[in-house]
TrEMBL record:
Species assigned in the record: Celeribacter ethanolicus
Protein name: Heavy metal translocating P-type ATPase
Family: Belongs to the cation transport ATPase (P-type) (TC 3.A.3) family. Type IB subfamily.
Subcellular compartments: Cell membrane
Span of the entire protein shown here: 438 to 729 of 786
Amino acid sequence: ATPMSIMTATGRGAQAGVLIRNAEALERFEKVDTLIVDKTGTLTEGKPKLVGVYPEPGHDEVEVLRLAASLERGSEHPLAEAIVRGAEERGVDLAKADAFEAVTGKGVKGTVDGRVVALGNVKLLTDLGLDAAELRDKADARRDNGETVMFVVVENDVAGLFSVADPVKATTPAALKELHALGFRIIMATGDNERTARAVASSLGIDEIRADVMPEDKAKIIKELQAKGHKVAMAGDGVNDAPALAQADVGIAMGTGADVAIESAGFTLVKGNLDGIVRARKLARATMRNIR
Ligand code: ADP
Ligand code: MG
């Protein structure tokens, strides 16, 4: 590769909001055929908002929200912020939580006012020996609307569910359409529930969905595709996405995301939207054409 053309591409990329780490990343990107995108914070705004609180019979709406939000103050997950902000907006006073524990890919646990509280997904319920059979219809209705559902457990009793909405970024639909036209197969990988993922993906022309994915599994999915001869780029924003970004032929971090994601990536999209990937692909093609 002639250094000048790479330098030109790097400069143009920077002007267009794509930081390119090195020539190798640009060269590899030209050969990529499969693009994996994280859902939360990559396709969506990543600022979920609490839109529903559904206590089970015998449980109080304000009380389940108070217990859940008191616990979530200890978590930095975007879903935790949604719960805490939702409680604050509703004027709920929070308590101090003890024995706080984050369960990766599942939720949080701890003690509030001497009561054992847990909040998270079906995997967390399963770990606790519980199920959400009675809440399934309510949960599925919210998921079909693209919302994320979390179950709250108080003293080993499922006390209710919360639903959280995270709108798709305004720039996402057009960017995905163009990426398709450029020839990428697009796969959504998310820790979120399959139904929620399906509802979000349906309007976006996503080719394939991998849902209920544990953080360490994102890198595994990429390895499997690579073993079949695919060249894979991965776009993500979270701390959990860092291993996958490092495993990908080209990792693409959202500039609005976690520092560790940015450090693991070959490209950083400064504005945090997928338009930057379209630009990067065009730059990669133009640069490699010049070099050959
Ligand atoms: P992703 O960012 O791809 O959605 P995560 O691994 O961060 O994946 O989370 C997967 C799932 O685990 C979430 O959809 C949620 O159900 C649950 N979860 C994780 N952290 C929390 C939390 N702090 N509070 C409640 N649920 C959580
Ligand atoms: Mg994310």
